Amino acid sequence: MLTVPEMGLQGLYIGSSPERSPVPSPPGSPRTQESCGIAPLTPSQSPKPEARAPQQASFSVVVAIDFGTTSSGYAFSFASDPEAIHMMRKWEGGDPGVAHQKTPTCLLLTPEGAFHSFGYTARDYYHDLDPEEARDWLYFEKFKMKIHSATDLTLKTQLEAVNGKTMPALEVFAHALRFFREHALQELREQSPSLPEKDTVRWVLTVPAIWKQPAKQFMREAAYLAGLVSRENAEQLLIALEPEAASVYCRKLRLHQLRDLSGRAPGGGRLGERRSIDSSFRQAREQLRRYRHSRTFLVESGVGELWAEMQAGDRYVVADCGGGTVDLTVHQLEQPHGTLKELYKASGGPYGAVGVDLAFEQLLCRIFGEDFITTFKRQRPAAWVDLTIAFEARKRTAGPHRAGALNISLPFSFIDFYRKQRGHNVETALRRSSVNFVKWSSQGMLRMSCEAMNELFQPTVSGIIQHIETLLARPEVQGVKLLFLVGGFAESAVLQHAVQAALGARGLRVVVPHDVGLTILKGAVLFGQAPGVVRVRRSPLTYGVGVLNRFVPGRHPPEKLLVRDGRRWCTDVFERFVAAEQSVALGEEVRRSYCPARPGQRRVLINLYCCATEDARFITDPGVRKCGALSLELEPADCGQDAAGAPPGRREIRAAMQFGDTEIKVTAVDVSTNRSVRASIDFLSN
User: Fold this and answer.
1) pLDDT tens figures, 289-338
2) Where is this region: Disordered (predicted)?
3) Residue 422 three-state SS
4) Which residues contact 480 (CB under 8 A, 6 or more apart)?
5) Helices 354-368/370-379 angle, 10° precision
6) For residue 41, which phi and psi values (nearest 5 degrees)?
C-alpha cells in the first residue's frame, strides 16, 4: 500500500505495518498536476484498533459553559463535592416572570468593535440607544446557528450584526467566552479565595451532537483566543455534546424530579424520595432477577412501572430541543458502573425555537410586505430587537389549551416608520392583508388568536416529531420505551403536548425533568468531573486516507490503473480508519506509521477524507470529500540519522488516532527515539 500522491506530501512513506521495509521511491505520478513522488510500503493488513485507558488530569473545579443559540449560562462544581452543582448568580436585568439562571446570547460591541456587554445588559443597553446611534453599534444575537449552517466554516468566517456590518466569527465567539470566563472566575474567587487560578479549572463547552468536526474545532479555537485555556494545556478544555450532557444528568435524577407527560407518576413515591435513576436501575435489575415474571412486584415495591419497563435493555432516547437545533441520542445504561453506551449515531436538525421566530417574521412579511420588513430591520435594528423581545414574551405563554387571544406590542418606531414608508397606518395594512387571524387591538397592539400562535409552532414541532419517529424506526433503537425531553424549547407547552400526542400513543413514555432548561448545563458539569461516563460512541462518518494498492484486474476499474517502474497500482483507494455508525470505545486507537523520506523534513501533511456511508471504495466516489489534514511536526533533531544509523528517510513516526471521544484526537511518537511528536488534525483549513 502507498499513499495517493497529493500536494504537500513530498518525500513521505506511509503504511500500516511498521515492520515492512519501504521499496525504492517511484518516479512522480502522471495522474494530476498535484502529484509528487511517494515511496510505497509493501501492502499489508491494517492493524486492529487498540484500546487504551484515557488519562485523566486533576482539577480542583469544573466550570461548564452552556453556549446556546438563544440563551447561555455557566455552572460549576468542586472536585471535593462533584455532584454539588453551583449555578451562576442571577443575571442583571431580564424579563418579568422569567428565571434568570441563564442570560440571552446577545453580544454588543462598540462602533469600533470593542467589547461592551453581553446578555441582558447588552440587550437593554442596545434597546435604549438612539435609533441613529444604534445603527453604528454591532449587536449580535442567535449567532451560534451560523456555525451549524456554514458549509465552508473557516477561521475567517464572518458574522453579520443586526445592522448589517460584519466581523470575524472567531472574534465574536471569543468575546462571549471571555465574558463567561471573567464572570465565572470572579465568582470562584469570591467563593473560594484560596483557590489558585492557574491550571486548577477544567472548562467544559457544550455543542450540539450533530455538529461536525470543523464546528467543534472552531469552538476550541475561540476558547484559546478567549484565554480559557492555552494550546499547551488543551486537556483543560472538554467539548461536551449537549444531549450526552443531558443524559448524564438525567441518570442522576430522583424520580420525583421528573414529570411524565402521560400524567402518570414516574415513581411509586418512596423511591422518589431518595433514589436516583441509575440506582433504581440496579435495584430493579436485582428484583427482576429474583422475580423475572413478576412485573407487579417491581411496581408495588416502589421501583415504578417506568423503570421496570426499561429492564429489557436499559435504553432510552434523549431529545435535546434547544433554541437552534434538535439533537437526538440513544443511550444504554451499562452495569455495574452505570456507564453509558451510544446505540445510534447522533441525529437531528435545525428545528429549534428560532424556527417559531422565523415563522412570525414571515407572518409580518405577509402583512406589511417583505421589502418593508427588510428595510426596517436594516434601518431600525434596535426597534426590530424590541419587536422580537415582545414576541418572545408572548411565545412563552402559548399553549395547546389556551383560550384567550394574545396581544403583541409593536414598537412606536415600527408604527411611525411604516406610516412614513407606506403613507398609511398599520391598521390599514392589517385590514388590506389576507391574514384574517391577526387584528389590530384598541390598545394599539397586534391581536393574534391562540390558533394562529400555535400554527407558528407547527413546522418546527412537526420537524422534531418526524426526526424522533425516524430514529425510533431504526433497528438499533427497537425496544426503547422512554424519551427524555430536555432543552430550553422543551419548556414549551405546545411542544410537550404535540410530542406526547404523537409518541405516547405508540407506547413511548415522554418524561420531562423539572429543571428542563438547565439539564444540559448541569449535565455538562457532571461530564467534566467524569468524562469517561460515556464509554462507547458511534462514529457519525467514515474517515480515512487515500492510498495506492496493488492493482487487481476485475476488482479495480481500469481508469484507476497506474504503472510505475513496471508495477501496477490502483490509485485513489479509500483506506478506512473508522466506519460510519461503527461503535468506538473511549480510548480505542487506530494506529498508522508514516516515514519522512527527505533529510531535514520538518513537517508531514496527510489529507483526510470522510463520507456518510461505509462502503466507499475510492476517494473519488460520490459523497467522499476531503475534510481535513493530519499534521506531524518534526523537531530538527528528529530529521537526521537515528540511533541505529538508518538513513533519514526511513524514520518511523507512529500516529495513534482516537474516534471514541467528543473530538477526534491524535498523538504521535518517533519510534526510534520514543519521543513524542507534535501531532494535530485541522478541519478548518480545508
Assistant:
1) 544 443 333 333 323 344 434 443 578 999 999 998 999 999 998 877 78
2) 1-53
3) helix
4) 315, 316, 317, 330, 472, 508
5) 110
6) -105, 155
Fold of 61-238: Nucleotidyltransferase; domain 5 (3.30.420)
Nearest residue to 580 via CA among 631, 547, 531, 624: 624
Answer whether 598's CB lies under 8 Å from 604's CB. Answer: no
Closest residue by Cα to residue 575 from 613, 609, 622: 609
Cell reading at 439: 387584528
| Location of each CATH 2.60.34.10 domain in the chain | 541-639+648-680
Residues of the chain with CATH 3.30.420.40: 61-238
Write down the pLDDT at residue 264: 65
Name the H helices within 433-507: 450-472, 493-503
Cell triple for residue 451? 390558533
Predicted model pTM: 0.83
- What single string gives the DSSP state of each residue in 273-330? HH-BHHHHHHHHHHHHHH-TT-HHHHHHTTS-HHHHHGGGT-EEEEEEE-SS-EEEEE
> Considering only CA atoms, which of 278, 208, 137, 226 is closest in space to residue 486?
208
Angle at alpha carbon of residue 104, lines to 101 and 107, rounded to 5°: 130
Contact (CB, 8 A) for 529 and 538: no
Contact criterion met (CB below 8 Å) for 106 and 94: no
pLDDT tens-digit readout, 150-166: 778 999 999 999 988 99
Is cis: bond before 27, omega within 30 of 0? no
Q: Which of 528, 537, 562 is nearest to 547 (CA)?
A: 562
